[in-house]
Design brief:
CATH superfamily of the largest domain: DNA methylase specificity domains
Number of strands: 22
Helix content: 25-40%
Strand content: 15-25%
Length: 371
């Protein structure tokens, strides 16, 4: 924190805001005139055509998720989605983006699915001169824009992979290229892990991955599991052939459905039963890379999600996956595709590494100004 900066308690930094009308989640549209902002991590959660729900505060504001702790900078008219959205209108002492960056950097303790606004009230916010705030915002905006451009490059590469899939294999649902089809359990063993009781979970040892951990692994993000199992337990499972081997495929099956990870040679982890489906003994008719691309295909993924069961959380059972019919193109064509995907993934890895480096710089600059 810089010398000479004054401080103000959080509530003295914001203008009073009248209560806004809120849309129910069931009212969200996939397309519409006006964006909906909620406390979810995505900037926009959906759309509405109901103009009387739209808010325009005449200047940028900050949205805080009372349950999620997500902080968003909003500089457009929007409708408020569902419960838990706190609208923060910075006073004229602040550049709105500076106020946003400070709250983003500071964060608040995670109280689980509880209310967190009470913790914001305890924060003291620095007030540099407006010219200093502008300088800080410009620097952080520059780094942020570099990160966003690189993330856009990742999406373009994902789109390229989708285009390659359609070009080489056609539509996997209509099977317009007329490939032979097999049910999944004819080309792979479809199982899950051995159940590990919660009483056996530990705070150190071999990582015990849940769905969110597998998703982070797929996205190449840092995996910081909170749960572990004993190394002796893991080694016993491994000796009995109950641990995934290189080129086995793991499929997320509860909550987040249908995301796939190809197990690497030196991976060392176990995973939660009932949450993740394990494809092993994949036979010579099928390439793991093709399998993963099939599940990532947009129409196949939509079909899978549509067939999922739903209680409070969507899930797809081992039986459903086992009986799912999949196209089997010639292996040589699958291998050509895998070679192209390998080149794309290499490019993605380089971009992801670059993103990590810029994010590290971005965080260090926030620490420099705010810590």
């Amino acid at each position: 924190m810089k010398e000479g900066w004054t401080f103000l308690n959080f509530e003295g930094c914001i203008e009073k805001c009248k209560k806004t009308k809120q849309l129910k989640t069931s009212d969200y549209l996939p397309e519409g005139k006006y964006p909906i902002v909620s406390q979810e991590s995505d900037l926009i959660s959906g759309y509405t055509n109901m103009a009387d729900y739209v808010n325009d505060f005449g200047k940028p504001i900050v949205v805080f998720g009372d349950h999620s702790r997500v902080v968003k900078y909003i500089d457009f008219a929007f409708a408020v989605g569902a419960d838990g959205v706190k609208i923060l209108i910075p006073t004229n002492d602040f550049h709105p983006k500076f106020f946003y960056y400070y709250l983003h950097w500071h964060g608040v303790e995670n109280l689980g699915y509880s209310r967190h606004y009470k913790l914001l009230k305890e924060i003291n916010v620095p007030i540099p001169t407006l010219s200093e705030q502008q300088h800080i915002v410009e620097e952080l905006d520059l780094l942020s824009s570099i990160i966003e451009k690189k993330k856009a490059q990742l999406k373009e590469l994902d789109n390229l992979a989708q285009s390659l899939f359609y070009e080489m294999f056609g539509d996997p649902i209509t099977n317009d290229k007329g490939w032979d089809k097999n049910v999944l359990n004819e080309v792979a063993k479809v199982t899950s892990s051995k159940r590990i009781l919660q009483s056996e979970w530990q705070e150190a040892g071999i990582p015990f991955y849940k769905v969110a951990d597998i998703v982070n692994l797929i996205n190449g993000e840092c995996v910081t599991p909170l749960t572990f199992i004993k190394e002796t337990t893991y080694n016993e499972l491994k000796s009995n052939g109950l641990v995934p081997k290189a080129n086995d495929v793991l499929i997320t099956s509860r909550g987040t459905i249908g995301q796939c990870y190809i197990v690497k040679e030196h991976d060392s982890f176990y995973f939660q039963d009932g949450m993740i489906t394990w494809l092993s003994n994949i036979n010579s008719l099928i390439s793991p890379t093709f399998l993963v691309a099939l599940f990532a295909n947009d129409v196949f993924s939509d079909s899978l999600k549509h067939s999922a069961n739903s209680s409070t959380v969507a899930y797809i059972s081992i039986k459903q996956l086992s009986n799912m019919k999949i196209p089997i193109p010639p292996l040589a064509l699958q291998q050509q595709f895998a070679s192209k995907i390998e080149a794309i993934e290499h490019q993605k890895d380089l971009i992801k590494q670059s993103i990590k480096e810029v994010e590290t710089l971005f965080n260090s600059r926030m620490d420099y100004y705010f810590n």
